Amino acid sequence: MNILPFPQHIDVQEEKYYVLSYMDRIVIDPAFEHSVYACVRFLHADIEQYLGFDLQVTRSSDHAAIRLVKDESLPKQHYRLSISEKGIRIDGSSKEGLLYGIQTLRQIIAEYAVTLPYLIIEDYPAIQTRGYYLDVTRCRIPKISYLKSFIDKLAYYKINQFQLYIEHSFLFEGWSEVWRDDTPLTAKDILELDQYCIERNIELVPSIATFGHFYKVLRTKSFRHLCEMPDLVDDPFSFVDRQFHHTLDITNPDSFAFTISLIEEYLPLFTSNKFNICGDETFDLGKGKSKKMADKVGVNELYVQFVAKLCHYLVEKGKIPMFWGDIIVNAPENLKRLPKETICLSWGYEADQDDEAIQKVAATGAHQYCCPGVSGWDQLVPQIEVSYENIRRMCDYAIAYQAEGILNTDWGDCGHINHPDMSLPGLMIGAECSWNRTRRPFDQLNEVISRLEFRDTSGQLLSVINQMSKAWTYKWRDLVNYKEQVSELVEAEKIHDYLEALASIERIKQELARVVSHLETSSRYRVQPYFLALDGMALLQKIGISLLERYYQLPPHVEMSSVDLASSLEQWFYHYKVSWRKVSQESELYRVQEIIFWTADLLRSESIDQIS
């Protein structure tokens, strides 16, 4: 049975079925508040889509096939779902529990259509807060229509918190110099998304940079005076430097006022009682304008003073502060200097991630979430197996150390080049592992995701996609590093690895083509971004080969001239832009374009040193 997340307790009698009829009704217990109708609409729409039945919905009737019953004895997120000769019944004490029961029923109907097996499900989450964190700053800002469809997916898989990461991609007043070349989110967008989330039992939590990661902001004429290291502000744009610079000069009194002005403008747009100030990766702190003070009191002291000041401000506003814990974990005793309400976000993204940071935070008694990742940054296709291992471990740590939540992260380092839909497997892995303590094996979960999300009757799609993420050897990050002179070309023998990768990519492309025939017709369009990614990977291998051939003056290994390769890259990028613009605003697509066009020009030049 393809249910995700898998229920805590399920008893199925597949030899017996209840047959749903177009004459049936959905009856809502009058004890439920009227707002639950928003949840019922999702079920009604699915039944109409998959079965063609336009079922009547009422709040009082003796004739019901689907009965939604309020049971005050159940905990808030707990539900009970039964299918028998009497029909279908979902019990819950709250809108949350009822919605989760409805989402499970929707998945069962999608699989079994009108003949629904007799079953009893008793279900509830292992971790109360199950969140998703989406970077909408680094190049890609999804369209509001796409974000709504993404929120629908979060709700479908019982995720109940959502955060959008903002550095400069919101239309703050007085920031025209910051967002003039961008397509930022607006206050209206946020208000609309907040309401959309409320209807789906999702808490939309505000999250903005307030300390580090002000790269674009602090490079402007208007705000560079607040930069810790002003000597860097006129350096050319760099994807790599963007990850490390710029940090706010917190010894400047204007810096705190600047940050508070952002919070005051952004905070009222949300109904959430939380606010994430981020505060991560403040790499420049103590190295520039604040060095004198840092030498006197220490970098850790400088850091905690500023973070504490922001957190106390939020508490006075009645909000619960959240922040990333990568810096404070170096001196975890400082957690006791923050307001007791503060939530520390302990992150780590390795497949073999240890629990050291989480253990340190737990030992102080501080509130914390454990934060794994979907492993899509720098990738044309996210590393699904890495994300599975990472998320599984972090959810286990959350349970072991009694963390209050999971926040599964989706970052956009080096341009957020992968299609947003490609994060759905990682999203679903996070939904599964944060709901149920039992861990389905990787291959089994891949099959469930293939069948449930992609309507793949073979159950093989995710297995093929997993191969994609491992296929390339010369990667996007390698090209970025070469352009930005972070790394040099490798030894000539690496060509053989690139050639093997090319062959592997071609084999995977053929496997993907075979699997497409097993997808329902309505789902086949979703595979197009994967074909596009495979072609991009293949071009990158050829680029790596071409650069080494020219640098080491080697004979050609691929039947394509560098000029033809440049043309193929530009043609591929045309289709990439079409795909981007279907789901995302223009945002910083031009940043990705700069890398592509620089590479094409380099391939056409007489020498690889000509442009670099």
UniProtKB/TrEMBL annotation:
Signal peptide: none annotated. InterPro entries: Beta_hexosaminidase_sua/sub, GH, Glyco_hydro_20_cat, Hex-like_dom2, HEX_bac_N. The active site is at E281. Coiled coil: none annotated. The keyword Acyltransferase does not apply. It comes from the Bacteria. CDD domains: GH20_GcnA-like. Residues 130-367 form the Glycoside hydrolase family 20 catalytic domain. The keyword Hydrolase applies. One of its GO terms (molecular function) is beta-N-acetylhexosaminidase activity. Residues 2-124 form the Beta-hexosaminidase bacterial type N-terminal domain. It catalyses: Hydrolysis of terminal non-reducing N-acetyl-D-hexosamine residues in N-acetyl-beta-D-hexosaminides. GO terms for cellular component: membrane. Keywords: Glycosidase, Hydrolase. It holds the Pfam family Glyco_hydro_20. One of its GO terms (biological process) is carbohydrate metabolic process. Its EC number is 3.2.1.52. Belongs to the glycosyl hydrolase 20 family. This is beta-N-acetylhexosaminidase. It comes from Streptococcus cuniculi.
